[in-house]
Specification:
By secondary structure, this protein is α+β, with helices and mostly antiparallel strands. The chain is about 40% helix and about 20% strand. Among the domains are: about 160 residues, no CATH class; about 150 residues. It has an eight-stranded antiparallel sheet. The chain has a four-stranded mixed sheet with strand order 2-1-5-4. It binds adenosine monophosphate (AMP). InterPro entries: GH3, GH3_C, GH3_M.
């Protein structure tokens, strides 16, 4: 990126954040002016565009509250029930508690905003790390298929929408090692193979290794483990492996494999053959200065893995985004992953914040074990004893749930994320991402809530009944060290009619339970399972009494026995070990999901 462009973009960030209050007022004014006549807003405002009336009468909502409006638009009704803007596509967000993906209306303005975030971030990174323009980034980027909706518009993930946007194709794409056709290929294994192969052929140009979310890294490592021999052989012979058949991968590869390169193959092979792969990324790409990947929130589970394979290169978490709105960027990219905060960009959407009370120890504990329940804050909001605040009015150190209003038909919409104010950049606050509300388990971009997990386990429990078994307690954890990651459930079983300790577990029944859980989890989980981005679910049956030991452990750490609730998801190593040491049988889901 040219110096003048970097300076221009940095100046823009300074301007926007210095005028955060005015920018926010302007955005809300514009949204109300354009959309006051929509069915939705009209119901509450009767055509008025006053900002105070908006705050007084328009309710704070979740997806479920507005789903019927969105469904009507997906089914082909004109979008002006929610927005007067022209809808260009639907963006699919992570699933609802009901299990289906969420549809978010998108406009040209949304796409442009979404595309501007990586550009701004590029300028910030260039400011902090010198010499990036002297080489390229090996970014592992993948596109997902889109599909048609009855409205005639396409629905797709926001990453796919971004990768096919003109902004990406004309600007950022020039900074990466892989040709666009390969990035846009829908054949993920072939695309991954070619991206890695080109990255290795161009290894001396590679100054950074990246992706969007850190969850891509375990897949990439596993893929290299499975394919490094083919990759080295292709480099040695100058011939692309026959299994790369997709023309969008094969054709662009030909210009990279022009002639045999045994020198490079001789250099790479010993690196791959080494017993330990610790630090392998820096051995393969010796000029890499940093890893570009989001490692905040649920992605923090991958920090250890990235540190291990990269030899502790700095990891830069670039931005905080969602399908519903873009929020902010990391203005201090070289901060350690645990200290990352995102500066909100006030021209992206109209932001409001519900204060979340985290003062009492019980609540802090709740946050730690079970995710944050914010219903209390909403209740307070409804009865007038709590105040939803504007972007510029948030207080340092306070926790909030973020609420957005956009031109594309979301009004006071609860995104579901809990954030903590860590400071201000000019007048705009910086937030640390604390947690997604009610998410129990998370691997890759799947987020399974406590409610979803409990529903799925209930569905599977039916399988136990004919055998006289009772499920007495369960918990879970996301095993992010196996590749791909997977969910492991601990089940404590008891014979309904006997107190015997010895359980005769029938593996067919237990495998069927694993399967029923998987089949009952949401769309995103099942999709990722089918794509092998999540491994088969495992149930570990523990001895009767194991969960009592677990409770003793938490009580010894200060939990109140009367208020103790079995954590639905375990994040503490010692707690997992307590259950693990009492396992009497391990069972896996097998076969493909329907
Ligand atoms: P989706 O709309 O499916 O793309 O998911 C968006 C959600 O991903 C956000 O609401 C956050 O919960 C999470 N997310 C996005 N960016 C970050 C980030 N930088 N750190 C932590 N979580 C993030």
């Amino acid at each position: 990126m040219e110096k003048s462009r970097i300076e221009y973009l940095l100046k823009k960030i300074e301007e926007q954040t210095s005028n955060a209050g005015e920018e926010q007022e302007k955005i809300l004014e514009n949204i109300l002016k354009r959309n006051a006549e929509t069915d939705y807003l009209n119901k509450f405002l009767h055509g008025q565009t006053d900002k105070q009336l908006f705050k007084k009468y328009v309710p704070v909502v979740t997806y479920e509250d507005i789903k019927s409006y969105i469904d009507r638009i997906v089914d082909g009704e004109p979008p002006n029930i929610l927005t007067t803007e022209t809808i260009t596509e639907f963006i699919l967000s992570s699933g609802t508690s009901g299990g289906e993906p969420k549809y978010v209306l998108s406009t040209a303005d949304c796409s442009q905003k979404r595309a501007s975030i990586p550009m701004l971030m590029e300028a910030v990174v260039h400011k902090h790390i010198e010499g990036l323009d002297k080489g390229k980034g090996m970014y592992l980027l993948f596109s997902n298929p889109d599909f048609d909706t009855p409205s005639g518009l396409k629905a797709r993930m926001f990453s796919s929408s971004y990768l096919s946007s003109p902004t990406f194709k004309t600007t950022l794409f020039k900074t990466v090692t892989t040709p666009i056709e390969i990035i846009l290929s829908l054949n993920k294994p072939q695309s991954m193979y070619c991206q890695l192969l080109i990255g290795l052929i161009r290894r001396h140009e590679v100054l950074r290794i990246g992706t969007i979310f850190a969850s891509t890294f375990p897949n990439c490592i596993k893929f290299l483990q499975d394919h490094w021999k083919d990759i080295c052989s292709d480099i040695r012979t100058g011939h692309l492996s026959d299994w790369i058949t997709e023309p969008d991968c094969r054709t662009p590869m030909l210009s990279f494999l022009l002639e045999p390169n045994s020198e490079l193959a001789d250099l790479l092979e010993p690196i791959f053959k080494n017993e330990s792969w610790e630090g392998i990324i820096t051995k393969l790409w010796p000029k890499a200065k940093y890893i570009d990947a989001i490692v905040t929130g649920s992605m923090s589970q991958y920090i250890g893995l990235i540190d291990y394979y990269s030899g502790r290169l700095p990891i830069i978490s670039t931005f905080y985004n969602s399908s519903e709105a873009c929020f902010g960027i990391n203005m201090e990219p070289l901060n350690k992953p645990w200290d990352v905060s995102y500066t909100f960009l006030p021209n992206m959407a109209y932001f409001e914040f519900i204060p979340v009370d985290k003062e009492s120890p019980q609540k802090a504990q709740k946050l730690h074990f079970n995710g944050v329940s914010n219903e209390e804050s909403i209740e307070k909001l409804e009865n007038g004893s709590a105040q939803i605040v504007d972007l510029v009015d948030v207080k340092m150190g306070q926790f909030y749930e973020v609420v957005v209003t956009t031109l594309a038909g979301l009004y006071r919409y609860r995104v579901g994320d809990i954030l903590k104010v860590t400071g201000f950049h000019n007048k705009s606050p910086k937030f640390q991402f604390v947690e997604r509300q009610n998410v129990a388990l998370s691997i890759d971009r799947d987020k399974t809530s406590e409610a979803d997990l409990s529903k799925a386990i209930k569905a599977a429990e039916i399988e136990l009944e004919p055998h006289g078994f009772l499920l007495t307690a369960y918990s879970s954890f996301a095993d992010t060290w196996s590749i791909p990651g997977r969910y492991i459930l601990f089940w404590e079983l008891k014979l309904r009619d006997s107190n015997t300790d010895r359980l005769k577990l029938d593996s067919n029944t237990m495998e069927q339970c694993c399967r029923r859980v998987e089949e009952s989890l949401d769309f995103t989980y099942r999709l990722y399972r089918k794509m092998n981005l999540i491994g088969p679910l495992e149930i570990r049956v523990v001895k009767f009494g194991a969960f009592d030991e677990l409770m003793n452990f938490f009580v010894s750490r200060g939990a109140a026995p009367l208020q103790y609730k079995t954590p639905c998801c375990l994040k503490i190593k010692e707690a997992i070990e307590i259950l693990d040491s009492r396992v009497v049988g391990k069972f896996f889901s097998n076969g493909n999901l329907a």
